[in-house]
Amino acid sequence: MIGIIIVCCLLFSLNVAAQDQDSIASVSLQDSTKTTFMDRIHQLQQFLDDKAKKKVDPRYIEVPEKPWRVILRYKANMVNVDYDNSIDFPATNEYSEWNLHFEPPVATSIGFWAGYRGTGLSFSLPLTKNAGRYFSISSTGAKYGFNFRLRRFNTSSATLSATDYKDGIRNGDGYHDEQELAAPVWISSVYVNGYYVFNGRRYSQAAAYNQSVIQRRSAGSFLLGATWYQSSFDYSDISNFLFMMVGHGVHRIKVHQANIGFGYGYNFVPFRGLVINAMAMPTVSVYNRVKVYKYDFNFDVTSPVTEVDDYGEFDSETKTWANGKTHKPFYMYKEGDLLGCWEVDPETTYTWLRLNLDLRLGIAYNWSRYFIGLQAQYNNFSYKKDDCQIRIFDAYARLSMGVRF
User: Fold this and answer.
1) What is the full DSSP assignment across 167-222?
2) Among 83, 90, 283, 393, which residue is least crowded by beta carbons within 10 Å?
3) Residue 231, by phi and psi: left (phi above 0), alpha (psi -120 to 50) or beta?
4) d(CA 139, CA 116)
5) Measured between alpha carbons, how far is 2 from 60 in angstroms, rounded to an integer?
6) Each residue's pLDDT tens digit, 329-386
7) What's the CA dihedral at 170, 172, 174, 179 to 10 degrees?
8) Dihedral pair phi/psi, residue 144, rounded to 5°
Protein backbone atom coordinates (compact mmCIF):
# COMPACT_ATOMS: atom_id res chain seq x y z
CA MET A 1 0.00 0.00 0.00
CA ILE A 2 2.81 2.36 0.92
CA GLY A 3 4.53 1.54 -2.40
CA ILE A 4 1.40 2.48 -4.33
CA ILE A 5 1.19 5.83 -2.46
CA ILE A 6 4.87 6.57 -3.19
CA VAL A 7 4.41 5.80 -6.88
CA CYS A 8 1.37 8.09 -7.06
CA CYS A 9 3.32 10.90 -5.35
CA LEU A 10 6.18 10.51 -7.79
CA LEU A 11 3.82 10.60 -10.75
CA PHE A 12 2.11 13.74 -9.38
CA SER A 13 5.48 15.42 -8.83
CA LEU A 14 6.60 14.64 -12.38
CA ASN A 15 3.32 16.02 -13.79
CA VAL A 16 3.67 19.27 -11.82
CA ALA A 17 7.28 19.60 -12.94
CA ALA A 18 6.25 19.06 -16.56
CA GLN A 19 3.56 21.74 -16.24
CA ASP A 20 6.08 24.13 -14.71
CA GLN A 21 8.47 23.48 -17.58
CA ASP A 22 5.66 24.15 -20.08
CA SER A 23 4.79 27.40 -18.29
CA ILE A 24 8.42 28.49 -18.27
CA ALA A 25 8.72 27.64 -21.98
CA SER A 26 5.49 29.55 -22.72
CA VAL A 27 6.66 32.62 -20.81
CA SER A 28 10.05 32.46 -22.54
CA LEU A 29 8.34 32.21 -25.93
CA GLN A 30 6.09 35.20 -25.14
CA ASP A 31 9.10 37.23 -23.99
CA SER A 32 10.93 36.26 -27.16
CA THR A 33 7.97 37.27 -29.33
CA LYS A 34 7.57 40.55 -27.44
CA THR A 35 11.25 41.31 -27.75
CA THR A 36 11.19 40.58 -31.47
CA PHE A 37 8.21 42.91 -32.00
CA MET A 38 9.83 45.74 -30.04
CA ASP A 39 13.05 45.17 -31.94
CA ARG A 40 11.21 45.58 -35.20
CA ILE A 41 9.63 48.82 -34.02
CA HIS A 42 13.06 50.07 -33.00
CA GLN A 43 14.54 49.01 -36.33
CA LEU A 44 11.79 50.85 -38.23
CA GLN A 45 12.34 53.97 -36.17
CA GLN A 46 16.08 53.73 -36.71
CA PHE A 47 15.53 53.32 -40.46
CA LEU A 48 13.32 56.44 -40.63
CA ASP A 49 15.80 58.45 -38.57
CA ASP A 50 18.77 57.39 -40.69
CA LYS A 51 16.82 58.14 -43.87
CA ALA A 52 15.91 61.63 -42.62
CA LYS A 53 19.53 62.38 -41.70
CA LYS A 54 20.94 61.12 -45.01
CA LYS A 55 18.73 63.51 -46.99
CA VAL A 56 20.24 66.65 -45.46
CA ASP A 57 23.62 68.25 -44.96
CA PRO A 58 24.19 68.24 -41.15
CA ARG A 59 26.21 71.44 -41.41
CA TYR A 60 23.04 73.27 -42.52
CA ILE A 61 20.12 71.18 -41.27
CA GLU A 62 19.88 69.36 -37.96
CA VAL A 63 17.54 66.40 -37.54
CA PRO A 64 16.54 66.38 -33.84
CA GLU A 65 17.28 63.20 -31.88
CA LYS A 66 13.84 63.31 -30.30
CA PRO A 67 11.47 62.46 -33.18
CA TRP A 68 8.07 62.95 -31.56
CA ARG A 69 6.40 66.35 -31.34
CA VAL A 70 3.25 67.82 -29.81
CA ILE A 71 2.28 71.32 -30.97
CA LEU A 72 -0.37 73.75 -29.73
CA ARG A 73 -1.60 76.09 -32.49
CA TYR A 74 -3.63 79.28 -32.75
CA LYS A 75 -4.69 80.23 -36.28
CA ALA A 76 -6.47 83.17 -37.89
CA ASN A 77 -7.72 83.02 -41.48
CA MET A 78 -9.19 85.88 -43.50
CA VAL A 79 -10.79 86.14 -46.93
CA ASN A 80 -11.73 89.22 -48.97
CA VAL A 81 -13.78 89.10 -52.15
CA ASP A 82 -14.11 91.94 -54.67
CA TYR A 83 -16.81 91.72 -57.34
CA ASP A 84 -16.45 94.36 -60.07
CA ASN A 85 -18.89 95.06 -62.86
CA SER A 86 -19.87 97.87 -65.24
CA ILE A 87 -23.15 98.84 -66.84
CA ASP A 88 -23.60 100.88 -70.01
CA PHE A 89 -26.46 103.20 -71.02
CA PRO A 90 -25.97 103.59 -74.79
CA ALA A 91 -28.95 105.93 -75.24
CA THR A 92 -27.33 108.62 -73.07
CA ASN A 93 -23.65 107.71 -73.58
CA GLU A 94 -23.29 106.99 -69.88
CA TYR A 95 -21.84 104.08 -67.94
CA SER A 96 -21.27 103.15 -64.34
CA GLU A 97 -18.55 101.11 -62.66
CA TRP A 98 -19.49 99.45 -59.38
CA ASN A 99 -17.88 97.15 -56.85
CA LEU A 100 -19.21 94.80 -54.19
CA HIS A 101 -16.75 93.98 -51.41
CA PHE A 102 -17.36 91.00 -49.09
CA GLU A 103 -15.33 90.42 -45.95
CA PRO A 104 -16.53 87.72 -43.52
CA PRO A 105 -15.32 87.65 -39.91
CA VAL A 106 -11.75 86.46 -39.40
CA ALA A 107 -11.95 82.72 -38.71
CA THR A 108 -9.95 81.89 -35.58
CA SER A 109 -9.28 78.45 -34.16
CA ILE A 110 -7.16 76.68 -31.57
CA GLY A 111 -5.88 73.15 -31.92
CA PHE A 112 -3.00 70.75 -31.57
CA TRP A 113 -0.76 68.63 -33.78
CA ALA A 114 0.93 65.39 -32.73
CA GLY A 115 3.19 63.13 -34.76
CA TYR A 116 6.52 61.60 -35.65
CA ARG A 117 9.01 63.70 -37.64
CA GLY A 118 7.04 65.37 -40.44
CA THR A 119 4.00 63.10 -40.25
CA GLY A 120 1.13 63.51 -37.82
CA LEU A 121 -2.48 64.37 -37.11
CA SER A 122 -4.09 67.63 -36.08
CA PHE A 123 -7.37 68.75 -34.57
CA SER A 124 -8.71 72.28 -34.19
CA LEU A 125 -11.71 73.91 -32.53
CA PRO A 126 -13.24 77.04 -34.14
CA LEU A 127 -13.44 80.12 -31.92
CA THR A 128 -15.35 82.47 -34.26
CA LYS A 129 -19.06 82.37 -34.93
CA ASN A 130 -20.52 83.04 -38.39
CA ALA A 131 -17.10 82.75 -40.03
CA GLY A 132 -18.02 79.79 -42.21
CA ARG A 133 -16.25 76.46 -42.40
CA TYR A 134 -12.50 76.12 -42.72
CA PHE A 135 -10.40 72.96 -43.11
CA SER A 136 -6.71 72.50 -43.89
CA ILE A 137 -4.04 69.79 -44.27
CA SER A 138 -0.32 70.33 -44.75
CA SER A 139 2.84 68.26 -44.98
CA THR A 140 6.46 69.29 -45.45
CA GLY A 141 9.50 67.11 -46.22
CA ALA A 142 13.13 67.68 -47.17
CA LYS A 143 12.36 68.23 -50.85
CA TYR A 144 8.61 68.75 -51.01
CA GLY A 145 5.69 70.61 -49.47
CA PHE A 146 1.93 70.14 -49.69
CA ASN A 147 -1.02 72.31 -48.60
CA PHE A 148 -4.77 71.83 -48.79
CA ARG A 149 -7.29 74.48 -47.69
CA LEU A 150 -11.09 74.57 -47.87
CA ARG A 151 -13.12 77.66 -46.96
CA ARG A 152 -16.88 78.14 -47.36
CA PHE A 153 -18.95 80.98 -45.97
CA ASN A 154 -22.00 83.12 -46.64
CA THR A 155 -22.66 86.75 -45.87
CA SER A 156 -25.37 89.32 -46.44
CA SER A 157 -23.13 92.27 -45.60
CA ALA A 158 -21.33 94.02 -48.42
CA THR A 159 -19.77 97.36 -49.20
CA LEU A 160 -21.11 98.88 -52.42
CA SER A 161 -19.08 101.46 -54.34
CA ALA A 162 -20.11 103.02 -57.65
CA THR A 163 -18.74 105.67 -60.01
CA ASP A 164 -20.73 107.22 -62.86
CA TYR A 165 -19.29 108.45 -66.16
CA LYS A 166 -20.83 110.54 -68.96
CA ASP A 167 -19.07 110.93 -72.31
CA GLY A 168 -16.05 109.22 -70.72
CA ILE A 169 -15.75 111.83 -67.93
CA ARG A 170 -16.42 111.09 -64.29
CA ASN A 171 -19.79 112.41 -63.19
CA GLY A 172 -20.10 113.32 -59.50
CA ASP A 173 -18.28 112.06 -56.43
CA GLY A 174 -19.43 108.46 -56.65
CA TYR A 175 -21.17 106.30 -54.09
CA HIS A 176 -19.83 104.26 -51.17
CA ASP A 177 -21.99 102.63 -48.52
CA GLU A 178 -22.59 99.50 -46.46
CA GLN A 179 -25.30 97.24 -47.85
CA GLU A 180 -27.40 94.36 -46.52
CA LEU A 181 -28.33 92.03 -49.35
CA ALA A 182 -31.83 90.58 -49.41
CA ALA A 183 -30.37 87.05 -49.50
CA PRO A 184 -26.87 85.85 -48.56
CA VAL A 185 -24.02 85.38 -51.00
CA TRP A 186 -22.27 82.00 -50.79
CA ILE A 187 -18.54 81.93 -51.49
CA SER A 188 -16.33 78.83 -51.37
CA SER A 189 -12.75 78.10 -52.33
CA VAL A 190 -10.49 75.04 -52.48
CA TYR A 191 -6.73 75.53 -52.62
CA VAL A 192 -4.24 72.69 -53.23
CA ASN A 193 -0.54 73.46 -53.53
CA GLY A 194 2.59 71.35 -53.89
CA TYR A 195 6.20 72.37 -54.44
CA TYR A 196 9.62 70.84 -54.99
CA VAL A 197 12.80 72.15 -53.33
CA PHE A 198 15.93 71.97 -55.49
CA ASN A 199 18.41 72.55 -52.65
CA GLY A 200 16.71 70.30 -50.13
CA ARG A 201 19.99 69.19 -48.52
CA ARG A 202 20.77 72.69 -47.25
CA TYR A 203 17.43 74.52 -47.27
CA SER A 204 14.28 73.42 -45.46
CA GLN A 205 10.80 74.95 -45.47
CA ALA A 206 9.94 72.61 -42.60
CA ALA A 207 12.44 74.36 -40.32
CA ALA A 208 10.29 77.49 -40.32
CA TYR A 209 6.78 76.08 -40.83
CA ASN A 210 6.50 72.90 -38.74
CA GLN A 211 9.86 72.63 -36.92
CA SER A 212 10.44 68.97 -37.80
CA VAL A 213 14.08 69.96 -38.46
CA ILE A 214 16.33 72.83 -37.35
CA GLN A 215 18.09 75.17 -39.79
CA ARG A 216 21.64 75.74 -38.48
CA ARG A 217 23.07 78.02 -41.20
CA SER A 218 21.51 80.42 -43.70
CA ALA A 219 20.62 78.92 -47.08
CA GLY A 220 18.20 79.39 -49.96
CA SER A 221 16.72 77.41 -52.81
CA PHE A 222 14.73 77.72 -55.99
CA LEU A 223 11.35 76.04 -55.86
CA LEU A 224 9.04 74.58 -58.49
CA GLY A 225 5.36 74.67 -57.59
CA ALA A 226 1.94 73.67 -58.86
CA THR A 227 -1.46 74.85 -57.64
CA TRP A 228 -5.04 73.76 -58.16
CA TYR A 229 -7.66 76.33 -57.27
CA GLN A 230 -11.43 76.19 -57.55
CA SER A 231 -14.07 78.54 -56.24
CA SER A 232 -17.69 79.48 -56.60
CA PHE A 233 -19.54 82.76 -56.14
CA ASP A 234 -23.31 82.35 -55.77
CA TYR A 235 -26.03 84.90 -55.07
CA SER A 236 -28.74 83.28 -57.18
CA ASP A 237 -31.63 83.95 -54.78
CA ILE A 238 -34.10 86.03 -56.80
CA SER A 239 -34.33 88.48 -53.88
CA ASN A 240 -31.00 89.84 -55.14
CA PHE A 241 -32.52 90.65 -58.56
CA LEU A 242 -31.21 94.25 -58.51
CA PHE A 243 -27.56 93.18 -58.37
CA MET A 244 -28.21 90.49 -60.97
CA MET A 245 -29.80 92.93 -63.38
CA VAL A 246 -26.99 95.48 -63.20
CA GLY A 247 -24.57 92.52 -63.36
CA HIS A 248 -25.84 91.43 -66.80
CA GLY A 249 -27.90 88.60 -65.32
CA VAL A 250 -24.92 86.83 -63.73
CA HIS A 251 -25.93 85.04 -60.54
CA ARG A 252 -23.33 82.28 -60.13
CA ILE A 253 -19.73 81.76 -61.23
CA LYS A 254 -17.61 78.61 -60.95
CA VAL A 255 -13.85 78.67 -61.53
CA HIS A 256 -11.35 75.83 -61.93
CA GLN A 257 -7.75 76.89 -62.29
CA ALA A 258 -4.41 75.06 -62.54
CA ASN A 259 -1.19 77.01 -62.09
CA ILE A 260 2.52 76.34 -62.26
CA GLY A 261 5.19 78.61 -60.84
CA PHE A 262 8.86 79.07 -60.16
CA GLY A 263 9.96 80.86 -57.02
CA TYR A 264 12.65 81.26 -54.40
CA GLY A 265 12.82 80.73 -50.65
CA TYR A 266 15.50 81.77 -48.18
CA ASN A 267 16.19 80.80 -44.56
CA PHE A 268 18.11 83.45 -42.62
CA VAL A 269 19.78 82.23 -39.41
CA PRO A 270 21.18 85.22 -37.47
CA PHE A 271 22.11 83.02 -34.50
CA ARG A 272 21.65 79.42 -33.42
CA GLY A 273 18.04 78.43 -32.85
CA LEU A 274 16.40 81.26 -34.78
CA VAL A 275 15.34 81.00 -38.43
CA ILE A 276 13.49 83.56 -40.56
CA ASN A 277 12.00 82.33 -43.83
CA ALA A 278 10.62 84.27 -46.78
CA MET A 279 9.27 82.67 -49.95
CA ALA A 280 7.73 84.19 -53.08
CA MET A 281 6.33 82.23 -56.00
CA PRO A 282 4.48 83.88 -58.89
CA THR A 283 2.35 81.37 -60.78
CA VAL A 284 0.82 81.34 -64.26
CA SER A 285 -2.40 79.49 -65.02
CA VAL A 286 -2.17 76.79 -67.67
CA TYR A 287 -5.85 75.88 -67.29
CA ASN A 288 -8.55 78.39 -66.42
CA ARG A 289 -12.17 77.30 -66.81
CA VAL A 290 -14.89 79.80 -65.93
CA LYS A 291 -18.54 78.78 -66.02
CA VAL A 292 -21.05 81.62 -65.72
CA TYR A 293 -24.73 81.07 -64.93
CA LYS A 294 -27.19 83.79 -65.93
CA TYR A 295 -30.80 84.89 -65.65
CA ASP A 296 -32.72 86.84 -68.24
CA PHE A 297 -35.40 89.31 -67.13
CA ASN A 298 -38.45 90.92 -68.63
CA PHE A 299 -37.03 94.21 -67.35
CA ASP A 300 -33.70 95.67 -68.48
CA VAL A 301 -31.78 98.42 -66.75
CA THR A 302 -30.00 99.42 -69.98
CA SER A 303 -33.10 99.77 -72.19
CA PRO A 304 -33.92 103.30 -73.39
CA VAL A 305 -36.59 104.90 -71.22
CA THR A 306 -39.79 105.71 -73.17
CA GLU A 307 -42.28 108.39 -72.16
CA VAL A 308 -45.36 106.27 -72.78
CA ASP A 309 -45.85 102.91 -71.12
CA ASP A 310 -47.24 100.95 -74.08
CA TYR A 311 -45.73 97.61 -73.12
CA GLY A 312 -48.94 96.03 -71.89
CA GLU A 313 -48.82 92.61 -70.27
CA PHE A 314 -45.88 90.21 -70.37
CA ASP A 315 -46.30 86.75 -71.93
CA SER A 316 -44.21 84.30 -69.90
CA GLU A 317 -44.36 81.66 -72.67
CA THR A 318 -43.05 83.83 -75.52
CA LYS A 319 -40.93 85.96 -73.16
CA THR A 320 -42.27 89.15 -74.79
CA TRP A 321 -44.45 92.10 -73.81
CA ALA A 322 -47.73 92.83 -75.54
CA ASN A 323 -46.06 95.37 -77.87
CA GLY A 324 -43.62 92.69 -79.07
CA LYS A 325 -40.59 93.92 -77.13
CA THR A 326 -38.59 91.54 -74.98
CA HIS A 327 -37.52 93.96 -72.25
CA LYS A 328 -39.11 96.84 -70.41
CA PRO A 329 -36.92 99.61 -68.93
CA PHE A 330 -36.10 98.92 -65.32
CA TYR A 331 -36.45 102.57 -64.32
CA MET A 332 -40.16 102.28 -65.09
CA TYR A 333 -40.43 99.29 -62.79
CA LYS A 334 -42.83 99.99 -59.92
CA GLU A 335 -44.54 97.92 -57.27
CA GLY A 336 -47.24 95.81 -58.85
CA ASP A 337 -45.35 95.09 -62.07
CA LEU A 338 -44.61 91.44 -62.69
CA LEU A 339 -40.86 90.85 -62.50
CA GLY A 340 -40.07 87.69 -64.43
CA CYS A 341 -36.78 85.84 -64.73
CA TRP A 342 -35.63 82.59 -66.28
CA GLU A 343 -32.41 80.61 -66.64
CA VAL A 344 -30.41 80.90 -69.84
CA ASP A 345 -27.73 78.49 -70.98
CA PRO A 346 -24.53 78.90 -68.94
CA GLU A 347 -21.44 80.17 -70.69
CA THR A 348 -18.13 78.34 -70.32
CA THR A 349 -14.83 79.89 -71.35
CA TYR A 350 -11.25 78.63 -71.23
CA THR A 351 -8.33 81.00 -70.88
CA TRP A 352 -4.76 80.84 -69.62
CA LEU A 353 -1.81 82.99 -68.57
CA ARG A 354 -3.53 84.36 -65.49
CA LEU A 355 -0.97 85.62 -62.98
CA ASN A 356 -1.37 84.75 -59.28
CA LEU A 357 0.97 85.10 -56.33
CA ASP A 358 1.98 82.91 -53.38
CA LEU A 359 3.82 84.68 -50.54
CA ARG A 360 4.92 83.04 -47.28
CA LEU A 361 6.74 84.18 -44.15
CA GLY A 362 7.86 81.97 -41.27
CA ILE A 363 9.79 82.58 -38.05
CA ALA A 364 10.83 79.85 -35.59
CA TYR A 365 13.00 79.65 -32.49
CA ASN A 366 14.29 76.39 -30.94
CA TRP A 367 15.77 75.86 -27.49
CA SER A 368 16.37 72.59 -25.71
CA ARG A 369 13.32 70.39 -26.45
CA TYR A 370 10.98 73.35 -27.01
CA PHE A 371 10.18 75.59 -29.96
CA ILE A 372 7.88 78.42 -30.96
CA GLY A 373 6.90 79.58 -34.44
CA LEU A 374 4.91 82.19 -36.34
CA GLN A 375 3.84 81.56 -39.92
CA ALA A 376 1.85 83.57 -42.46
CA GLN A 377 0.75 82.92 -46.03
CA TYR A 378 -0.94 85.13 -48.64
CA ASN A 379 -2.58 84.13 -51.93
CA ASN A 380 -4.55 86.11 -54.45
CA PHE A 381 -6.66 84.81 -57.31
CA SER A 382 -8.46 86.72 -60.01
CA TYR A 383 -10.62 85.91 -63.01
CA LYS A 384 -12.49 88.04 -65.52
CA LYS A 385 -15.46 87.50 -67.80
CA ASP A 386 -16.50 90.38 -70.07
CA ASP A 387 -17.32 93.30 -67.74
CA CYS A 388 -17.36 91.07 -64.66
CA GLN A 389 -14.24 90.49 -62.56
CA ILE A 390 -13.87 88.72 -59.23
CA ARG A 391 -10.76 88.85 -57.06
CA ILE A 392 -10.25 86.68 -53.99
CA PHE A 393 -7.59 87.45 -51.38
CA ASP A 394 -6.88 84.57 -48.99
CA ALA A 395 -4.42 84.79 -46.08
CA TYR A 396 -3.72 83.22 -42.70
CA ALA A 397 -1.43 83.68 -39.70
CA ARG A 398 -0.56 80.92 -37.23
CA LEU A 399 1.19 80.89 -33.85
CA SER A 400 2.55 77.55 -32.65
CA MET A 401 4.31 76.27 -29.52
CA GLY A 402 5.60 72.73 -29.12
CA VAL A 403 7.79 70.19 -27.39
CA ARG A 404 9.88 67.25 -28.62
CA PHE A 405 10.15 63.92 -26.83
Assistant:
1) TTEEEEEEEEEEEEEEEEEEEEEEEEEEEEETTTTT--SHHHHT-SSEE-S-EEEE
2) 90
3) beta
4) 12
5) 86
6) 877 666 566 788 899 999 888 887 778 888 999 999 999 899 999 999 988 777 776 7
7) -140
8) -145, 165
